[in-house]
Amino acid sequence: MNFDIPADLAAYLEELDEFVEREIKPLQHQDDNNRFFDHRREDARTDWDRDGLPNAEWEALLHEAKRRADAAGHYRYPLPEEYGGQNGTNLGMAIIREHFAAQGLGLHNDLQNEHSVVGNNVGLLLMIAYGSDEQKAEWVDDLAEGRRGFAFGITEPEHGSDATHMETTAVRDGDEWIISGEKTWNTGIHTASHDMIMARTSGNAGDGDGITAFLVPTRSEGFEILEYLWTFNMPTDHAHIRLTDVRVPHGAIFGEEGHGLQIVQHFFNENRIRQAASSLGAAQYCIDESVAHALERKPFGKALATNQAIQFPLVELQTQCEMLRALIHKTAWSMDEYGAFAVSDKVSMCNYWANRLCCEAADKAIQVHGGMGYSRHKPFEHIYRHHRRYRITEGAEEIQMRRVAGYMFGFMSQQAPKGVASISGS
Predict the structure, then answer these.
(1) Residue 397: left (phi > 0), alpha (psi -120 to 50), or beta?
(2) Half-sphere exposure of 170 (CA within 13 A, CB side)
(3) Does 395 map to a domain?
(4) What is the pLDDT of residue 415?
(5) For the ranges 15-29, 141-155, 170-184, 307-321, which has the lowest average pLDDT?
(6) Which of 116, 171, 363, 424 is 20 to 30 A away from residue 387, measured at CA?
(7) Residue 228: Cβ within 10 Å count
(8) Is residue 124 domain-shared with residue 92, that is, in the same domain?
C-alpha cells in the first residue's frame, strides 16, 4: 500500500499555490478587498439593510476570483474534459480542499459560501449527470461561466432532515405540473434564476420513491420568498419560500420522475467527503496556528508551549487529524474505484467526525490565543461559527451516525439507489 499523494496531484498543488500567489492574493489586497477577510469580515460581507443578504461587492469579488481561476484552467478541475475540466477525482478534490482550508481564510478558498478557485459547482455536476439533452444545452455553459444558477429546495419547515415525509406536492395537469408547498434553508435563492424543488408526485409519506425534482423559475407566479433566516455566521442567503399552485411544463422535471430524492442523496454522498476534507484542513490550520503561538507567547517568563496543559490537548487534536486524514484519503480513493455508494458508511464517519473535530480545534485555538483568540482579529471564531453549521446541514451528525449504524447492523445496503449516476469527472 502506498499512502503518498500521487505525484501528479502533488505537482498540481504546487501549480495551484503559484496561481494563488500570482493572481488571487494581489486581488484580495487590492482596493481594501481584505476587509472581507480581516476583523471587519462579517460586517463587510453583510448587507444589513437588505435582509442580511451577502453584500453585492463581496459577491462580485468572489465572481472575479472564479473568473480568473476558470481562465487559468483550475475552476473546472472536477468536471469531465468535454466540459473544460480535468476529470478530477474524489481523492483529488479531497486533497485539494484540505490543502486550501489548511491555509486559513482567503480569497483562494472561503468555505462560508463554498467558494474556491477549484470549484465544487454542485449544480453543474448534477446537470451533467442527470440533465436531459435539452436541459444540458440550456444550462451547462451558463452554470460553468457563473451567469446563471439554481438553488436547492429540499428541506421543509416541519420535517428537517426527514425528506421522505415532505409535504410539497406536484400534480400533473396535461402537459404541466402544479406545485404547492414550502421549503426552508433554500440557500442561494437570492441570485438563482431557478429553484430545484423536490415534490411528492406519487407514493406515500415515508417512501423514498415517488419524489420528483423540478427546475422551477423563481419568477413564477405563486413563487414567494417569505424571509431570509439570519444565522450564527452572517451574511445569510438561506430563505424560507412558499409555492402556491406554481405551474411548470413537464420538461421541468430534472432526472427521472419519482427518483428525485436519490439524485440528492448521491450529491450528498460525494459532497460530504469534500466537506469532511475542508473541515480537516480548517482543523489543521487551527492546530498549526496554536502551536506557533504557544512557542512565541511567553507569559511568566516561559513559552506557553512548555506547559503540558497546552501541549496535551493539541496532541490529541493532531492525533485525530492524522487518523482522519488516512480515512478520508482511503474513502475518497474507494469512491473513485468502486463508486460513491460502495463506502457510504465511511463517508458518514468522515463527515461527522471531521466537522466535530474542526469545532473542537477552533475552540482550543481560541483558548490558546486568549483574548485575541476570542476577538475577530483572529479567524478562529469565524471558523467555529461556520463549521458548527456543518454539524447540522446535509445530514446532522446524529443522522450520519444513524447511517453508520444502519450499515453495521444490516438495516442498509452499500449500493446506489435506482436512477443514480456518478457526478465526479472520473
Answers:
(1) alpha
(2) 28
(3) yes
(4) 63
(5) 141-155
(6) 424
(7) 19
(8) yes
227, three cell numbers: 424571509
Question: Do residues 79 and 425 make contact, with C-beta atoms less than 8 angstroms apart?
Answer: yes
Query: How far is it, in rounded angstroms, from Cα 27 to Cα 272?
Result: 30
* pLDDT-derived band at 341, boundaries 50, 70, 90: confident
Q: Show the domain range for 111.
A: 7-128
* Residue 135 domain flag: no
Task: Give me the residue label for grid cell 476570542.
Answer: 374
Q: Are residues 377 and 289 in the same domain?
A: yes
Kindly report whether the peptide bond that precedes residue 157 is cis, defined as omega within 30 degrees of 0.
Answer: no
Q: Which residue has the cell 446535509?
A: 394
Using the predicted structure, report yes or no on whether residue 425 has a pLDDT greater than 70: no
- Judged against a pLDDT cut of 80, whether residue 321 lies above it is answered with yes
> Residue 231's closest CA among 336, 112, 333, 345?
112
CATH number of the domain to which 234 belongs: 2.40.110.10
User: pLDDT, tens digit, for every residue of 152-193?
Assistant: 988 899 887 777 888 999 999 999 999 999 999 999 999 999
Does 304 share its domain with 184? Answer: no
What does the pLDDT read at residue 353?
97
What would the pLDDT profile of 89-130 be if each residue is shown by its tens digit?
999 999 999 999 999 999 999 988 889 999 988 888 889 889
Q: How far apart are CA 285 and CA 277, in angstroms?
A: 12
pLDDT band for position 426 (cuts 50, 70, 90): very low
Q: Residue 330 phi/psi, 5° resolution?
A: -65, -45
> Domain end: 222, 254, 286, which one?
254
DSSP-assigned letters across all residues of 1-20: ---SPPHHHHHHHHHHHHHI
Tell me the average pLDDT of the chain. 92
**Cβ–Cβ < 8 Å for 107, 24:** yes
**SS (HEC) of 75-125:** CCCCCCHHHCCCCCCHHHHHHHHHHHHCCCCECCEEHHHCEECCCCCHHHH
Cβ-proximal residues to 75 (8 Å cutoff; 6+ apart), any chain: 66, 69, 117, 118, 119, 121
**C-alpha cell read off for 145:** 461561466
pLDDT greater at residue 413 or residue 140: 140
Comparing CA positions, the residue from 232, 152, 224, 217 lying closest to residue 188 is 152
